[in-house]
Amino acid sequence: MAVIWGPTFDEDEAAWVARARELARSRFAPLAAELDRDQRYPWENVAALNESGLAGLLVPTEYGGAGGSLTLVCGVIEVISTACASTGAILNACALGAYPLLLAGTPQQREHYLGGMTAGRAVSFALTEEGVGSDAAAIRATAEPEGEGYRLRGEKIYIGNGGASQTYVVFARTDPEAGSRGITAFLVDKDAPGVVIDHYEDKMGIRGTLTSNLKLDTHVPRDSVLGEPGRGLKLALQTLNAGRISVAAQSTGLGLAAYETASAEAVRRATFGRPIIDNQGISFPLADVATDLTAARMLTFTAARAFDAGDAAATLGAMAKLHASEAAHRAADVAVQVHGGAGYCKPNLAERLYRDQRILQIYEGSSEIQRLVIGRAVADEAALR
């Protein structure tokens, strides 16, 4: 039996995960260090995700996708993230862009945009603005009625897959007096007049991904509204409830990679005539990492299955994202320590994983926000006793 607990899948899910594992082994892992070094977006990996059907896992079968569950998506993201954190992040960004359409898209929107995803036309989620991170209700982008649609103005930042996606789900304020109920979601094409991307972030980690801004002064037709007008913030939060669980899967994948390189190094490397894993100062931290990752995987896949079953999964998802991202941080830290000076220098897998991990405690809701969500649930439950 493996030291770290692993999820079980049905026959169809297991076949998809096996497909992802083979791609990860043969194509994604060998490129990972190069993508990091050159800060290069891996179009060849994206092509492989599209050709294999992995990019369209969430897309319903009637639109050409696999109709996969969040549980399956998490299994695939975890496997790919173990091999290449950047490619795992790209796939997760595709899933994040799909969820608003799955939750609120009209049949026509789903057919066009979700169907397009199976042909390689990705959708990105554009919520964050300068100075408006965790407080999504404070966004300043506006959408004012103009002709047969809206004039959309503002700037979004930190967009995953920004510049690589063809469409953006943009959240803008349609009623300045209505607070959180005055925000609406729009589908915006990258090539529309007045849509400009002119900045890409130079990131610490997941350097094979593209993270861009999106400047907007564009007219969008009325049928570009996604979901109910004024209910965009609710849609964003529902999307993030799913996104947090898939980020937890990214985290467990990266944590497993850190654990594997650390434990292998601890067995290989010797001091004073003995493998360093014989020292409790090394074996005990690795034992903690194995326990951490077992708990993280259990939380992640339990949350995913709850989401798939239609159960309330917001609190469980917050717990999964919080624990898995911080478990990955501890695993990456131990990996660097086990490798010693080599773990602090390039090129070394432990060094890269340490940088790749750090964003997992920030995006799709920081660890502080997850604790806030969980803390509110604790207070609500206690008030009912």
UniProtKB/TrEMBL annotation:
Its cofactor is FAD. Residues 230-378 form the Acyl-CoA dehydrogenase/oxidase C-terminal domain. Residues 124-217 form the Acyl-CoA oxidase/dehydrogenase middle domain. Gene3D superfamilies: Acyl-CoA dehydrogenase/oxidase, N-terminal domain (1.10.540.10), Butyryl-CoA Dehydrogenase, subunit A, domain 2 (2.40.110.10), Butyryl-CoA Dehydrogenase, subunit A, domain 3 (1.20.140.10). It comes from the Bacteria. Residues 11-120 form the Acyl-CoA dehydrogenase/oxidase N-terminal domain. Keywords: FAD, Flavoprotein, Oxidoreductase. InterPro entries: Acyl-CoA_Oxase/DH_mid-dom, Acyl-CoA_Oxase/DH_mid-dom_sf, AcylCo_DH-like_C, AcylCo_DH/oxidase_C, AcylCoA_DH/ox_N, AcylCoA_DH/ox_N_sf, AcylCoA_DH/oxidase_NM_dom_sf. The keyword Oxidoreductase applies. The keyword Flavoprotein applies. Pfam families: Acyl-CoA_dh_1, Acyl-CoA_dh_M, Acyl-CoA_dh_N. Belongs to the acyl-CoA dehydrogenase family. This is Acyl-CoA dehydrogenase family protein. It comes from Salinactinospora qingdaonensis. The lineage of its organism: Bacteria, Bacillati, Actinomycetota, Actinomycetes, Streptosporangiales.
